[in-house]
Amino acid sequence: MKQFSLSLLLLCLTQLTNAQNDTIWIDEVQIEASKTPTIYSETSRIVNVLTKAEIRQAPIQSISDLLEYAMNVDVRQRGYHGVQSDISIRGGTFDQTLILINGIPFSNPQTGHHNSDIPVDIENIENVEILEGAGSRIFGPNAFSGAINIITGNSKENKLKFGLSVGENGLYSGLASGSFTKNYFSNNLTVSKKGSNGYVENTDYQILNILYQAGIQLKNNSLEFQAAYQDKGFGANSFYTPAYPNQYEATKTQFVSAKWKGGTKVKYQLSSYYKKHNDRFELFRTNPATWYTTHNYHQTHAYGFEGNLNFVSKIGRTAIGASFRNEKIYSNKLGFDMDEPKEVRGEDAVFYTKSDDRDNFSIFVDHAYHTSKFSISGGVMANWNSAFDWELFPGLDASFFITKELKIFASINKSYRIPTFTDLYYVGPTNIGNANLQPEEAVTIEGGLKYISKFFVAEMAYFNRNGKNIIDWVRLSSADKWESKNITELDTRGIEFSFIANNKIFKSANLPIQHLRLSYAFVDVKKHSGNYISKYALDYMKHKLNLNIAHSITKNLSLNWQFSYQDRAGTYHHFINDVETEYKPFVLLDTRLNWEIENWNVYLEVANILDEDYFDIGNVIMPGRWIRIGFIYDINL
User: Please, are residues 368 and 317 in contact by the beta-carbon 8 Å criterion?
Assistant: First the structure.
């Protein structure tokens, strides 16, 4: 989880927002795909960027909605509008994707189900950067199949912003934010709340987000600070098992970090962070069974420190650094028995009776060399975990320009994932954990072509990830409980294609199109695990075709279309029919009509226009057509 490279990725890719507005096009943007800074045209990895311009116009209400249309990102939503989502990349599982906020690791050590408890409103996001493929050499453990870095805006202007939207099923969303800057000091505060009565029984939700950001910019140094809070409660109809549909869950997230950057010839960065997450899960929201004695209570703590240096010499660019992270859980279900129970705050006579913690320390070195014709970068991270000892994550990336605009690239990297506390310890009516699990490992090779011109960018890639000790929840028949096991080797192969057009093309042709992005991904997974039924690892997105197009109608009126065809491999046990059932492919079509004039953005959104019946996760029905209307108003002070 190496903050150095993500901070560089942040620094470089935030400029890509302007690329869509013709200020900076992609080939001019500085980006970091390894440990050392370089420009986009020199990178040898696939980095997918969703820009502020796209986000502002898109028919979305949450980060999960946004990622639904990202290339080779699988978003398995339970509920809607960011209630809960399992996010994975390139056929991996939701525990194999690392989430970061402004370059700070954010993933939850309890379970990847909570990785989407992101305390950031969609209006705060500048862009989202998705590194596809093995990321452990760059970000450390758990960036197994990729990493997603969410970049928030820290406005340098004095302004206020207000937003409100309403819709069917009692949907509402409200936002108020303000930014104030004086001399070298900037402040930003955003408060937002949204909720709904639900689209079917027991799918209601309430979500409160608060985000504060501050910055101090000096001549050769800067300090960045962020603090965030989220309070979420939702009806969890059949979320974890259809046998008990009347489930409910409430989570609270607190997140704070500070980052100090500086230096001239030798640049340095120091950072620290702390995250606390509370989870209360109720198998019975009302009318509990006689055998049901208590809800599940979990509290996780994660804190870390990191220091990095990078410098340029005659032989290229070099980066070195080290980091430390501690993860701890208190629970009445997960971990080892405590000598002294700990009271659950806010509850009567409820105690955490189990706990566990682990430390993680890593050091890395990375070097890159670039010429006008080729680029090569390589490095290694050495990682020690108190539960699993030492491990090395080496990697090498290379690219060669065939012509000025066309290049070929290839890479090989090792990745690694540590089991979550849920993998290790959870025991419930339908699940059995495994305290003897070992970390997952994989070696990924990828290669492809990139064509980068002033008019468009096209990328095509092939990847092969050979994984061993893959963790999955499995069973031999529907009569058995799900058990977490290192049961399988998985060979994951796929191809990707993406095309992004610079709107200069359409302006020169006097066409009303403002933006065009097209992508397709195919994934195939081969297992070597016998006859086990898989709950997650083999339920992957096999085909995904996305099209995003925005066009103007009049001077101030525009329309954005999001199209996605999704075909999932794998099966689920149909609870009503009592049979193993294959997932059916489906088409999602969303649209947003934007009217923008002066400081106003008034919009009408329609989600799932085709009123498609579909499952992201078996037995958890997703909503049909959903209409909402709203506005955003900016005031400059």
Answer: yes
| Residue of 552, 579, 571, 599 lying closest to 478 (CA atoms) | 579
Structural domains of the chain, with CATH? 3-636 (2.40.170.20)
Strand extents, DSSP E, 510-577: 513-527, 533-534, 541-552, 557-568, 571-574
Q: What is the 3-state secondary structure of 420-475? A: CHHHHHCECCCEECCCCCCCEEEEEEEEEEEEECCCEEEEEEEEEEEEEEEEEEEE
Q: Which residues contact 554 (CB under 8 A, 6 or more apart)?
A: none
Task: Determine how β-strand 125-132 pairs with β-strand 104-105.
Answer: unpaired
User: Where residue 609 falls among pLDDT bands split at 50, 70, 90?
Assistant: very high
Cα distance between residue 220 and residue 512, in whole Å: 43
Q: Which tokens go with 520? A: 């397709």
As given in the structure block, the two tokens for residue 244 are 């008990």
Tell me how far apart the alpha carbons of residues 254 and 107 are, in angstroms, rounded to a whole number.
13
Q: Which tokens in the block code for residue 338?
A: 């405590």
Residue 15: is its pLDDT beyond 80? no
- List of residues 6+ apart from 304 with CB closer than 8 A: 1, 105, 272, 273, 323, 324, 325, 326
Per residue in 55-98, pLDDT (tens digit) is 888 999 899 999 999 999 999 998 888 899 999 999 999 999 99
Tens-digit pLDDT profile for residues 366-378: 999 988 888 999 9
Query: pTM (2 decimals)?
Result: 0.92
